[in-house]
Amino acid sequence: xxxxxxxxxxxxxxxxxxxxxxxxxxxxxxxxxxxxRGEITIDYPADGRPEYALATPAGRTRLDECRVAxxxxxxxxxxxxxxxxxxxxxFAASETxxxxxxxxxxxxxxxxxxxxxxxxxxxxxYQWEMARQAGLVLPRTLVTNRPEKAxxxxxxxxxxxxxxxxFIAGVDAWRETRLVRAEELENLESVRYAPVIFQEFVPGxxxxxxxxxxxxxxxxxxxxxTSYPVDMRMVVDETPVRPVALPPPLTAGLLRLMRRLGLVYxxxxxxxxxxGQYVFFEVNPAGQWLFVEERTDMPISAEVAALLSRRDxxxxxSERLPPRTLAGRAG
Length: 331
Hints:
Elements: E1 2-5, H1 10-21, E2 26-29, E3 39-43, E4 51-56, E5 59-62, E6 68-71, H2 86-106, E7 110-112, H3 115-121, H4 124-133, E8 141-144, H5 147-157, E9 162-165, E10 178-179, E11 196-200, E12 205-212, E13 215-221, E14 241-243, H6 248-261, E15 265-272, E16 278-284, H7 290-296, H8 300-312, H9 323-328
Parallel strand pairs: 1-2, 1-6, 6-7
Antiparallel strand pairs: 3-4, 4-5, 8-11, 9-10, 9-11, 12-13, 12-15, 13-14, 15-16
Helix pairs in contact: 1-8, 4-6
């Protein structure tokens, strides 16, 4: 059985269809169904094996024999509205988290990606340090909530040559990458409310590199001639996308980064400067790939399904290695 932890989205649906067409049993769980619309069972009997089970609107599933799990995309738990006090709602969510994550970590299956390592890898400062250790080039970067520190950085790098960005740009609180203009300097005092990422602007073509195990799919997304060259996400429909080959040393560095982070899957964003130097921005452990696949015909969805199938096909009697080792031997 293959467990898919995600909500209903195109990337998951396409891979699930491929797995089911190949005869695999797939169970999908949306964390937002729990605990209000679902049930969690962890039953240790007096003798015999424990029972791990989840019941959601999609049905009840015993996870004891789960062989591989895809930690794709998660949403917050939903607690019963009858718990009116914020303190009680927080307690219910916390208890659900402890029970569910304990259940997941107890499963003797291979995770893509291991949830704890996936959570760590979502933190950009940690990514940057692992990337530096892997030999990748980073842009000049400052994270601060000190307005005077931010002002000094911008003065050194230059107005119009410095970008600022958020750590997380969610759908409900979208924040595109922006160039610092003269008018932004008047608002620098607001930096004190929360840390902000400031970076030296790197001109050139973006690259989205999707890593699946030891397979690397690289696409160039050149937004330099579009209406918003600062952030290709804003103009992806205007931007030419084409498959490209990466220099072998760069590919090796990206795979080293993935091993250091303990990730099996990741969508990496780079930029190639006009002088040919590649600069690392970030890796998204749950990054999108369909917009690349649809424009380049690279078989990314098929490779994700193949990876999950290969891991599901392991000999059930074989030794189960710890998640970090499995991720390190990805593919």
